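@channel sequence for tomorrow's demo:
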Amino acid sequence: MRQFDVCENPSPRSRAYAPFVVILQSHLLDAAPTCVVAPLLNAEGRRAYTEVSAEVVFQEKAYIVSIAELAAIERRLLDGPVGSLLAFEDGIRRAMDRLFTGF
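structure tokens (generated this afternoon):
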């Protein structure tokens, strides 16, 4: 799987409000047993929380990529990608930069 690929959320507990996760870790680290992801939160009735989130459209629906809720999950729990957010790379990277550098 590649950076910015979208997978179904493997957690049944959070799937109702975050049906997908986006892979943020570089594909150059594919040998690692885990990968860093962020949830795609349903945007209906919500706005981006802070500057550490990014608004995206995936499968014709609005989502918020919540960079502040990064998690490392085991790769074996992820099914193959169902799409990509590469078209939203700039906004996602800006949100990651704000989280890690403050600007």
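heads up for whoever presents: The mean pLDDT is 92.
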